[in-house]
TrEMBL record:
Entry-linked Pfam families: DUF308
Keyword tags: Membrane, Transmembrane, Transmembrane helix
Transmembrane segments: 29-48, 54-73, 82-101, 107-127, 139-158, 164-188
Keyword presence, Manganese: no
Organism: Corallococcus macrosporus DSM 14697
GO CC field: plasma membrane
Protein name in UniProt: HdeD protein
Superkingdom classification of source: Bacteria
Length: 205
């Protein structure tokens, strides 16, 4: 009885093009670098960043109010909550226009809102972490304590804190977002480099 040793041709997986590899991580890296630099600039000009943030917030609030008013008249034909949408939209438009006309006052109100959020959030984290005592509860307690102190400091320094708080938070957010994008780009680059060329897959006889 004769045995035949037949092998199918090897299947070669094409290697990814070097330009494709560079595009996979280069674009996010450049975007992350630009965002990091933008965050540094925003931190250096905290007051300007705060004013721009207040103006954008007012514009977005007014725009959302207009959309809500339009939705109120559309839902009226279907028997929807007409007055709820209408009054809520008018309120959003009025508050948004007020922030656009008086951005400093809107910035002060936004700062008080953030201070109250820091205090309430920190108090919640501190109390729940002490009561539950789950694993690594100390980190949540530390976060809560820092948030409480930050909220109290912002309230005590108001309205001076309105000059730097919002801009600083926005700058920090943009900065760390850029750092995260660069870290992700380096991770993709490492995977592409350590992966190496794909070895030919030989089909079993």
């Amino acid at each position: 009885m004769a045995f035949t040793d037949e092998r199918r041709p090897e299947i070669l997986t094409p290697e990814p093009h070097p330009r494709a590899n560079s595009a996979a991580w280069g674009g996010p890296f450049v975007m992350g670098l630009l965002m990091t630099l933008l965050g540094i600039v925003a931190l250096g000009a905290a007051f300007f960043t705060s004013m721009v943030t207040a103006i954008l917030f007012g514009a977005m609030l007014a725009g959302a109010g207009v959309v809500e008013v339009i939705s109120a008249f559309r839902t009226r034909k279907e028997g929807g909550p007409f007055w709820l949408y209408l009054l809520s939209g008018i309120l959003s438009v009025v508050v948004g226009l007020f922030v656009l006309v008086y951005p400093a006052a809107g910035l002060g109100a936004l700062t008080l809102l953030l201070a109250g959020y820091f205090f309430a959030s920190g108090l919640f984290h501190a109390i729940t972490s002490v009561m539950d005592r789950y694993p690594r509860w100390g980190w949540d307690f530390f976060y809560g304590a820092v948030s409480i102190v930050l909220g109290i400091l912002v309230m005590r320094q108001w309205p001076i804190s309105a000059v730097w708080l919002v801009g600083t938070l926005v700058g920090i957010g943009i900065f760390f977002r850029g750092v995260a994008l660069m870290a992700g780009a380096f991770a993709v680059r490492k995977v592409l480099r350590t992966g190496g060329p794909t070895t030919p897959a030989t089909v079993a006889r």
